[in-house]
Write a structure and sequence with these properties.
heterodimer, A: 116 residues, mainly beta, seven-stranded mixed β-sheet, four-stranded antiparallel β-sheet, 11 strands, B: mainly beta, 12 strands, globular
Chain lengths: 116, 115
């Protein structure tokens, strides 16, 4: 019974490059959430997706960041033209069908992005 | 607006001591959910407990116990007879019962259990 999978676990990019973070939810879970954790801080919500739909992206920066959760395949968080301030741990979580904030969210191991 | 406060930034205890981690929350909803997660040094987030606002019964799971007090908007977490493996950052989180509502996390409490 695989949990939430994220890859890569560590990602190094130079300023201006693109970063692609992947998340495969728990099997059977149709709701995915992305969070960012800056060093020594708590997690901050970024975006909530269901299959092929963005439900809530209120926590995601308007520029350079995008997320998708296609019908087939993992959810992708894409950061274009990365800057040093994007260095953080990015966590993905998934929950079962309701996704009304009442379900427990199960987290992946995170992707640690370092921008040089 | 939702808010979660964990006033204790860092706590150090000696092994076998009991320790309580505080969590105070703010919400305007009458239906909400509270969670505790553990983040060990390896970095992953481990789910510990989920509690809804209608269930004020305290819960015990092994050495872990939780005290939910609606009157004071607190959901405190106690580890009895702490062990070195309990060393981690512990996050309290709140979710309101709204469509698409995200989790709001507290800033975390770093617990160090010394041998």
């Amino acid at each position: 019974n695989a949990g939430v999978m994220q890859n890569p676990r560590h990602l190094v990019r130079r300023r201006g490059q693109e970063a692609r973070l992947r998340c495969s939810p728990v099997k059977g879970h149709s709701h995915v959430y992305w969070y960012r954790q800056l060093p020594e801080e708590g997690l901050k919500f970024m975006v909530y997706l269901q299959k092929e739909n963005i439900i809530d992206e209120s926590g995601m920066p308007k520029e350079r960041f995008s997320a998708e959760f296609p019908k087939e395949g993992p959810s992708i968080l894409r950061i274009q033209q990365v800057v040093r301030g994007d260095s953080a741990a990015y966590f993905c979580a998934s929950s079962p069908s309701t996704g009304w904030g009442t379900d427990t969210q199960y987290f992946g191991p995170g992707t640690r992005l370092t921008v040089l | 607006a939702q808010k979660v406060t964990q006033a204790q930034t860092e706590i150090s205890v000696v092994e076998k001591e009991d320790v309580t981690l505080d969590c105070v929350y703010e919400t305007r909803d009458t239906t909400y959910y509270l969670f505790w997660y553990k983040q060990p040094p390896s970095g992953e987030l481990v789910f510990l407990i989920r509690r809804n606002s209608f269930d004020e019964q305290n819960e015990i799971s092994g050495r872990y116990s939780w005290n939910f007090q609606k009157s004071t908007s607190s959901f405190n977490f106690t580890i009895t007879a702490s062990q070195v493996v309990d060393s981690a950052v512990y996050f309290c989180a709140l979710s309101e019962n709204n469509y698409g509502q995200n989790f709001v996390f507290g800033p975390g409490t770093r617990l160090s259990v010394l041998p």
